[in-house]
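Section 3.1: Structural characterization of target chains.
Under the original work plan, the team committed to producing a structural model for every single-chain target entering the pipeline before any wet-lab resources were allocated. The record below documents one such target. The sequence was received from the expression subgroup and is listed exactly as submitted; it comprises 173 residues.
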Amino acid sequence: MTTPAVRPLVPRPVRWAAHAAPLTLLPSGLWRCAIAFGVPSGFDVSHPLHRSNFPGWTSLYLIGLSLVAEGLGLLTLGLVQPWGERVPRRVPVLGGRRIPVPAAVVPASLGAAAVTVITVVSSFGWGEEMSDPGAPKGVAAWVMTVSYLPLLAWGPLLGWVTVAYGHRRRRAG
């Protein structure tokens, strides 16, 4: 009789961080989807994001961007779930194989660094973007800002979960 392999427990704060990471993308994704469906967002009629341009082909882009971003955010969960350590058996050819630690840690680390740099650099230009005459003003500007603000946490959360995954897997295996 063989005993099942015991996976190291994921600390609760790391698990919470992994679940929080995709949630940081949700507000901006919902904001983009609202624009895609023609909800007024406060942009001037001369701006490409004015509601008169939606719905249309750009709607597909905004919805697609939101779905891809959320999908990438959800991959963070793989760093705390069994499917992030072993390919599920239902997957043809690779099913049941162990996922090498670098195969998860390298892309997640690069992603965390890239997202952190992009969001931090973008935040420095936010005031200038919002001062553009075609940009939203008043409540619409606040809604847009509050929708994008959580993105600043995505990179650090992903980085923390990635370090925990790498450390946990190195110790265990």
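The two ends are 22 Å apart (CA to CA).
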